[in-house]
Automatic annotation (TrEMBL):
Signal peptide: 1-25
Protein name: Lipoprotein
The organism of origin for this protein: Herbaspirillum aquaticum
Domain of life of the native organism: Bacteria
Keywords: Signal
Length: 77
């Protein structure tokens, strides 16, 4: 693999929230995180740790949805 492509490919695989390469990042809404509560916790923790400064609007919405789903994890509806 070309060395110029190796690093971006690695970033797209390892850091989808930060690199914005995740193809389904726009589809990660509240309903998605309610079904995948462990991922909601992970994303929520990561957003809290790193903050949302420098993120684009779509990434901030993903963080918000993850936080909301994690916060409502004990509600059954």
């Amino acid at each position: 693999m070309n060395s110029a492509l190796r690093l971006p490919a690695l970033l797209c695989i390892a850091l989808p929230l930060l690199s914005a390469c995740d193809a389904v990042a726009g589809k990660k809404d509240y309903a998605y995180f309610r079904k995948n509560i462990e991922e909601a916790k992970s994303v929520s923790d990561q957003c809290q740790l790193n903050g949302t400064s420098g993120m684009n609007e779509a990434q901030i919405r993903v963080c918000g949805a993850a936080r909301e789903a994690w916060g409502n994890r004990n509600f059954n509806y």
